[in-house]
Design brief:
Blueprint (H helix, E strand, L loop, with lengths): L1 H18 L2 E13 L5 E12 L5 E12 L6 E11 L5 E11 L2 E11 L4 E12 L2 E11 L5 E4 L7 E4 L1
Antiparallel strand pairs: 1-2, 2-3, 3-4, 4-5, 5-6, 6-7, 7-8, 8-9, 8-10
Amino acid sequence: SSTTDNNTNSANKEKKTQKKEVKNLVKDIEYLTTDSNGNKYKILATSGGTNLKNNSILDLVNVRGTITSEDRSTIFIVSDFAEYNSGSLNSKFYENVVINYENKQITCDNFDINLEKNIAIAYNDVVVTDPTSVMKAGEIILDIKTKNININPNNKDKINIITN
């Protein structure tokens, strides 16, 4: 039975590499963008390359991002991977996403920033931690202009708030 295990493992590995196949691999990438409201976006990645299916999408690996504005606190984002669309300037961070904003830390599987709509959405396994509580949510919508946060529960679950 150990041979079948090995075969399955190598098949899984192949799938993963095909999915992440990129051309023009570049190391140490930095993108700087400013939106119409003066918010500054900075995305750093240890490596990345052009997505084979869509040339305006860059697949980034080991990503760190910041959103800074004059009136609000900086939002810090870290993730294993991201897709950056150089046409729309939209970003999709995924896998082990951590967002720090003021005294809150949000962890999730996906975090999408849509500059045209001025919103960012955290979804899939969302947990919000602040000094007094830990809360699970279905999704969190952040209005980039106002920095207002809407927390929506999972359809299945109620919002769980655990106060420390």
